[in-house]
Amino acid sequence: xxxxxxxxxxxxxxxxxxxxxxxxxxxxxxxxxxxxxxxxxxxxxxxxxxxxxxxxxxxxxxxxxxxxxxxxxxxxxxxxxxxxxxxxxxxxxxxxxxxxxxxxxxxxxxxxxxxxxxxxxxxxxxxxxxxxxxxxxxxxxxxxxxxxxxxxxxxxxxxxxxxxxxxxxxxxxxxxxxxxxxxxxxxxxxxxxxxxxxxxxxxxxxxxxxxxxxxxxxxxxxxxxxxxxxxxxxxxxxxxxxxxxxxxxxxxxxxxxxxxxxxxxxxxxxxxxxxxxxxxxxxxxxxxxxxxxxxxxxxxxxxxxxxxxxxxxxxxxxxxxxxxxxxxxxxxxxxxxxxxxxxxxxxxxxxxxxxxxxxxxxxxxxxxxxxxxxxxxxxxxxxxxxxxxxxxxxxxxxxxxxxxxxxxxxxxxxxxxxxxxxxxxxxxxxxxxxxxxxxxxxxxxxxxxxxxxxxxxxxxxxxxxxxxxxxxxxxxxxxxxxxxxxxxxxxxxxxxxxxxxxxxxxxxxxxxxxxxxxxxxxxxxxxxxxxxxxxxxxxxxxxxxxxxxxxxxxxxxx
Length: 558
Fold this sequence. Notes:
This protein is α/β, with parallel strands linked by helices. Among the domains are: 64-215, Rossmann fold; 447-557, ANL, C-terminal domain (GMP Synthetase, Chain A, domain 3, 2-Layer Sandwich), CATH 3.30.300.30.
């Protein structure tokens, strides 16, 4: 399909309220499995550094990574009786060698289930039980929790390994035990097999209930790497590009957009185990980092923290923000400091592998998330499932080769999320303008209903973040028995030296009231030390709701 015909169909769909197709030409998805796909890039030299420890400068080259992935796969088969379809759970913060067990498991014919390294024992038990993982690889920092969880699910200690070079608490390093001399033979997959065969079981946190395993196939990741490549490649200088790996690798954003994309491109990633503002700034300055995938809380620090002014971050050409909405005001505030940096947004979920919509680097616009990536179709629908028009609000539905296969062992949740036509119902409220640019205006289930009016929390959060006394915030709806309605409540982290007084509370209420219609006003303000967020930067509104509910129950007993 030619570019002109693709654009014509796209514009026609807008006029007729039809399903919206990407305006970009489809990418050709090859007939291959994921590991074969990643390491078939002949233009990458085996001596090219691909993973660098940002602290120690230890390096893994492209050739070393490929060799280690294939050796790890053989070691799993030979020492752990690992068979096709078996699952390995990876429980570690970012490490320079994280990709070895991550990809090696898939090369062995298995499935990798990355877990949040901060999980407590109960949370880890849930993932181990749900996946029936045959092997667990942990990190020295969380090994005690890993062993406790393994014991509870009956996973033998000799099937638990640890990152590093030395045994810890009797647990052996995977590097010494599973990296033998044999290299596994990668099994070739047809296009259909790649679409059906699960590679990853990442767990989606959601806002209620236990996390759900997302079945991401070989084909899903391959498609998303190519979809993202089609958008980004025109703006890449392969000779100088350096990517910062600070997002958690267990999360789909870091897993696909950093780890897989860098291998496909042959571009080095500077790995940080976790985010620390000073270490972040030092790494960018010292290593001349050109590209970083970040989340809004980090961008908030870059915009407001005085430490940032002590460093030269001018090499940072591009920041891609995802995982949570980023307001246009915050982008503009950050750009006052990062004057040479393009800050743009992308949109996606674990279920979309993850990139579904992204801004173009040369046309980034504050407050939008950009365009559908190639090979994708979208609908924006009202509460009756009917397509809405230009600049009208509705739930965003997405369809394409990057949409997950299903939720693991959860046919009910799958049926509720993916309809008969193959559209994944995101639960996010979006609008589409006449240029084909999407914007997310809120989360469907998080809309506050104040006296019949819908109040979007994200809008109020964006306003509060522009206040000179606010460091961070979150807004939820709580039920007010006196007013017999939900009211917007703001949880606010104040800047240092700002007193948490009644006068400050009233100042913030007025600050918002001066910028919104009456029904969107903040009716309650609670000062807290930190906003609860997931590792990907999403506000955990469920935690705040639970806290508010406990508070209301306590008051009712008085």
